[in-house]
Amino acid sequence: MCNQVVFIELCSGRVAILTHQNLKVPTLKEMVDSLKKKQNPFGIIYGWFLAKVANQLEVFPGAEFRVAFDEAMKYGGKVVLGDRPIQITLRRTWAKMPVWHKTKLLTSLFFQSLFLPSASVLNKMLKEMNDSDMLTLVVQEMSKRFPTLMETLVHERDQYMSSTLLRVSKESRSVVAVVGKGHLKGIKEHWQQPIDLAKLMEMPSHKPRITVKRIVGTLGAGVAVAAIVGGLFFSRKK
């Protein structure tokens, strides 16, 4: 049995968080290039949105995981990345959404990132939801209009991490788990409950119904409308 294990809410696809000290906001060109490489559209826009929020708050998501990793290395503990692979989560999230919701969500994230509340307002929202973390707060807000997001981005991951943590705890003498506040309740609820991991790991067929041209066109049209409305608004104020 392993003596000491530190279980972290990360997967191999997000392990870079452990070494990066800041979160770069991708440019529009970089995002379009990612779309052309057939990367998940939701993952691209969602990642950009989170980077904007993090910069507004002047925080770097995952700082607590970096501290846990450093402490584990200092004391010779074993680090277990216990979250479901991010690509599976993103693809399942995208697949469960109807086409109209996909277009609406991408456009919504894009414009919300352009008109983010001030850092003080965002911090107030986090304090009012003290059982949550920044990422879960974002998901909870979006889920008011897109209900399937909570299922794949939070609830399914709660089940996956609960099952993984239970397995690790049986194989180790001592385990310290470091996860976001928004996952604590779900992990506890599913503790020692039957969980179908195979179902949670199922990858939907990779046949994008929304093309790069359609996504860029939708966002472009939205920007044009915003520019026109903004122009009319400011012209009236003169």
What does this molecule look like?
Keywords: Membrane, Transmembrane, Transmembrane helix. With 238 residues, the chain is mainly alpha-helical. It has one domain. A 3-stranded parallel β-sheet has the order 2-1-3. Helix 4 packs antiparallel against helix 8 and helix 8 crosses helix 9. The longest helix has 26 residues.
Order of helices and strands: EHHHEHHHHHEHHH
Oligomer: single chain
How would you classify the helix and strand content by structural class?
mainly alpha
Strand content: 5-15%
Number of H- or I-type helical stretches: 11
Counted beta strands: 3
The gyration radius over C-alpha positions equals 20 Å
- The largest sheet has its strands arranged as 2-1-3
Helix % is: 55-70%
Q: Ranges with pLDDT <50 over ≥5 residues?
A: 214-238
The number of distinct structural domains comes to 1
Transmembrane segments: 215-234
Organism: Kalanchoe fedtschenkoi (Lavender scallops)
Keywords: Membrane, Transmembrane, Transmembrane helix
InterPro entries: TraB/PrgY/GumN_fam, TraB_PrgY-like
Helices, strands, pairings?
Elements: E1 2-8, H1 28-36, H2 41-57, H3 63-74, E2 78-81, H4 86-95, H5 99-114, H6 119-128, H7 134-143, H8 148-171, E3 172-178, H9 181-189, H10 197-200, H11 212-237
Helix pairs in contact: 2-5, 4-8, 5-11, 7-8, 8-9
InterPro entries: TraB/PrgY/GumN_fam, TraB_PrgY-like
Pfam family, one: TraB_PrgY_gumN
Keywords: Membrane, Transmembrane, Transmembrane helix
